[in-house]
Structure formats: structure tokens, C-alpha cells
Description:
Elements: H1 3-13, E1 18-24, H2 30-34, E2 49-55, E3 61-65, H3 69-73, E4 78-82, H4 85-96, E5 101-104, H5 120-128, E6 132-135, H6 137-144, H7 149-178, E7 183-184, H8 185-195, E8 206-209, E9 227-228, E10 233-240, E11 250-257, H9 263-289, H10 295-311
Parallel strand pairs: 1-5, 3-4, 5-6
Antiparallel strand pairs: 1-2, 2-3, 7-9, 8-10, 10-11
Helix pairs in contact: 1-6, 7-8, 9-10
Amino acid sequence: MDNITRAQSLVQSAGLDAWMVHDFRGNNPVLARLLPAPENESLPMATRRVALVIPADGSPQLVCHAIEAGGFAQTGIEVIPYGSRDELEGALRRGLGTSRNVAVEYSPRGELPTVSWVDAGTIELLQGMGVEPVSSADLLQGVLATWDESALAGHRRSCEATAAAMEDALDFVRAQLASGSVTNEYEIQSRISDKLTGFETDHPAIVGVNGHAADPHFSPSSTTPENMNPGDWLLIDLWARVPGDANVYADITWVACAGEPTVKQQTVFDIVRRARDLVIEQMQRTWQAGEPIAGWQLDRLARDHITEAGYG
């Protein structure tokens, strides 16, 4: 099933009239993910506003400027051209037809910035046309965030690679300390990067010693890294995926102590570990029962446990 066919099915299931994907010069990445590009070719350059309308029933239509209509016609979707600002509004009205409840890339109150791409002016334009914009967040997840067999296989490869890189880093630290040699945050980070060659990481791993471990997005300095000594506390956060937007990152965070942890370190570790286990147990229960559950609910479960333990 292609993305547009899947999108139309989800629009129907959601009880919506249509989904309008509005883009201006590439500011909405969803358009490129939904539009079928001609074989062995990229989508045409768009210097004007473009709107892909996917109705609950009927064929999708593409509103674009007349100077770019020829390129977009190659997608096989019916094109509604416009040449002026007034014609743009008319073309949108034609594309939307009688649709009133229309999904667009926006999030009420800006709660989900990762799905909020449409500007306030375009929202006002739609409202002035009698359209009630609703968030396309659930549609986006159903169309673009589902895994196929290839993505699942790639994710498993990424999990194996990140686990191996983590184990190698810890083995390296153990060996260095046992031999009396000195290592540091940057050296450990570089070793992890080497182990993940061939995978996409977008940024080197987070490696923090002692106080640096309290900085969630700490980045080691290549010139003044913190050394790792016996008794020190170490945090490693690393991630990787098989290259490609359709593939999913594996992401793990571990902490370690080069010696006996303090009482507080052990206490906090146990609290966080139990929060993790509560999430896993809840996911297993809902999966076995065939019940849906959202990420925010699992996040709340973990946060509540940590807060109740006095570390909220």
C-alpha cells in the first residue's frame, strides 16, 4: 500500500473530510514523504506554495503554481494550478470542495512541535474558508512512523551494534583502569564512534565522567576531557540507526562506577531502574491484552515513580 492510499484510509477511519499537506519551499517535510516521485527522479523544485489534498473519498489533488504544474503533473496526481494570490484561494477551495474537518500539520497550543509545520496565517486562511483545521499528528504516525519488515530488520541491526559498542567501551575502560593506564571522556567517545562506523548517529555519543554525567547533553572536549580514574562515575548515552529516514534509531543509556557506588548513587540507580521496569511491564500487559497505549502514558508512569521516590 502506497503512502497516499494508506493516508486516505486513515482519514476515513478518523472521521475527517480531508488531509491537506501545505508546503512553502520545503518547510513541511511531510509533502516529500507522501508524494510519489517519478521513477529514478526527485520531486520538482517548488518555489511557490503547494498543497496536497487527500480527501476521505475521491482522488487526491495537488494545488500548485502554474509555473510548476508541469513538474508536479509527473506525480500522477491531478494538478489544480494557480497564478495569483486570489487564484490560490480559489484553487484551495476547489481542492477542498465541501471538506470542513481537515487535518493539517499543526499542533493545538504548540504542544507537539515535531508535527507543527503550518503557519498561523494559513490556519487563519482555512478558517476564513469555513474549514476547521485539526492536527494531523495521528495520521502522520500511521503513515510515516510505522515499521515495515526492512525497518524492523534494520532496527535489530542497530540494537546489536549499539549494544556491542557499549560493551566494548566498558571493557576498554575496565582494561585501562586495571593496567593503571589513563583514559578520558573524549577517548571513550571516539572509540564508540569508530565502532559505529557505517551507521547513522547525527552526533557522537554522550560520555560524561562524575559531574559531567549530570548534564544530559554533555559533549566531551577534545582538548580538556575529564580523565576516568578508579572510583569515578561514568555515563554513556549512545544511539545509531541504519542510514535512511525510514529506519529507526536504537538508543541506550548506561551508567557505571569504577569501584563501589555510594549509597546515594545506588539508591538513585535503583529508582530509575524500577521506573524502567514499570514501563516494560505495562507495555507487556497492554500488548498481551490487545489494548492501545500512548508514549505519554508510559512516560507519566516512569515520572510518577521517580517523583514519589523524592526525585521529581
